[in-house]
Here is the input.
Amino acid sequence: MNSIVDFKETDMQNTDDIHDIRPGTRADTRPLAVVTGASSGIGFQLALLAARQGYDLLIGADEPLTQAETELRMLGARVFAVRADFATRDGVDELLAATEGRPVAALFANAGHGLGHGFLDQEFHDVQHVINTNITGTIYLVQCVGRRMREAGQGRILITGSIAGFQPGSFQAVYNGSKAFIDSFAMALRNELKGTGVSVTCLMPGVTDTHFFARADMLDTRVGRQSDKADPAEVARIGFDAMMRGESGVIAGWRNKMQVALSRVMPAPRLAELHRRLAEPGGGEVHRHPHHAKPSL
Here is the structure.
């Protein structure tokens, strides 16, 4: 397998294997895109891109979706919304039921969240919610929709992983571990679906300007206070375009590509120490002292 850092033409699915499901191929219907984690951030931006490309939308999140629905409908899309907890099978089933059997042309499996602080200081129900959202709920949704796509012989799946999956995540250990699983899972599933007409793409962003750090209780960390976070609209565009081209995956941003390349050669204990500098609670105080060097990861 080629390096995940350096995607080449050979990583792209043969275009003969992907049916043309672009909007506008039939006048009487619009293709349906399902987007999770769509209330804000990367997920909302993915939904905007899909609406602009002529998709109807089924959006889901465990947070209010009213504002997202309003903005998406202004783009001419038919929008259906499900507010549910995708850490549970019931929540995913509620989302699936809302498709009413309609074929899903594109799935954006984007729901996920982090959890800051040391592992031994975290409440285990919070730990379990991260695992159930980022892994269990995600792969259950992908399996259910993916089976329907394989039967239809067409479909596109974009799974949001993270460059965190390449780094031992001190003070964010469960989140990084969950993304290591997702990054690997997406590549494996893609290989299994060769020749079926269904493509799988993994979007691997780095630090992005979303509600992620507030929800993870990481606003007092160096990474939480980082002022040059990536624009979620740009991250979403990179992922959306990669999915439409049938690519295996994409790391959003040249700095993130460099970090992943470094992660492949640097000893794990060193990576863990660098991550500690970024994610340790209270570490954001170093921003008050300009003589402190910015860490490389």
